[in-house]
Amino acid sequence: MGEWIPDILGDGFEQQTLPLGEDSEGELVATVVRSLPEAPRWWHPLIGHRDRRPLADVDVLYVHGWSDYFFNRRLARFWTDRGARFYALDLRKYGRSLRPGQTPGFITDLAEYDADIGAALAARGDATGRRLVLLGHSTGGLTLSLWAARHAGDVAAVVLNAPWLEFQLSAARAAITPVVELQARFWPMDAAPQVDLGFYSRAQREVADPDDPLETNPEWRPEKAMTVHAAWLRAVFAGHDAVSRGLGITAPVCVLLSQRTALPTRWSPELTRADSVLVVDDIAAAAVKLGSSVTVERIDGALHDVFISQKDARDESYARLARWVDGWSAQTA
């Protein structure tokens, strides 16, 4: 077991570095951040302390999206207040795991993240009798969906926050794929044109809540999205193709999405109340192919990350999540 040390998020958060070997760019590590619930207050003279909170036997593993890392304290508190142990994974070459000289976020197969996820789960220590809930945002939602399909017996539930389950030009993906395949084979590091004008970052600043502040590191979560390379895009397309064919996830799935999409071609106040990254109707359609029990929650006024939207949409997102989680827990406890 590695060493838990204080995390940059401050009190209540610790991190552990997870060695993953090396690649052509040097040392590979992932980083897991944990937040543990407070000790139970209920006490009995014969059996001592017993945690009666609904998620006392639950471990949550969160995975971030593209050009991102874990920073949301309130999201962790949502789970720990219910008794769960919360773990967040900064994947290799992202956030806390990014090392000098590495290409941020670059990978050629999303299944390579099995090593990162496996190391994070091992860092929990003894998890006997505990239920595992996967929580993924955007590309992290795609990665965890694929992992859940390959590890059916290990997963009790999957919660996805605007998962990137389909390409934004879904009708053109089949036609684009051969071009991406060829480019990835011969020029894997070729960069796609930058289409992010920084409007999603601006929308987040516009709706920021001074009573619930979120501070991020601009080197780990830049104003404009990180460079997209051909081999990485091929890996994502392969994931989209797998989703389109059906993943067969056996655990219940909850997908939270904005009610609408807004195209980020120019700045508009509409971008503060919509998903400007994904085509949410296409994601909702793809979500039902994840498994046999899928709930889709559409939140009016939400951003791409529903949990950092303006206050009314953010509160509604947490309320919808609470309703689903509490119902799931009551049925499976």
UniProtKB/TrEMBL annotation:
GO molecular function, one term: hydrolase activity
InterPro entries linked: AB_hydrolase_fold, AB_hydrolase_sf, Hydrolase_4
Span of domain Serine aminopeptidase S33: 60-214
UniProt cross-references to Gene3D superfamilies, sorted A to Z: alpha/beta hydrolase
Keyword annotations: Hydrolase
Keyword Hydrolase: yes
Any one GO CC term of the record: membrane
Name listed for the protein in its UniProt record: Alpha/beta hydrolase
Organism annotation: Microbacterium esteraromaticum
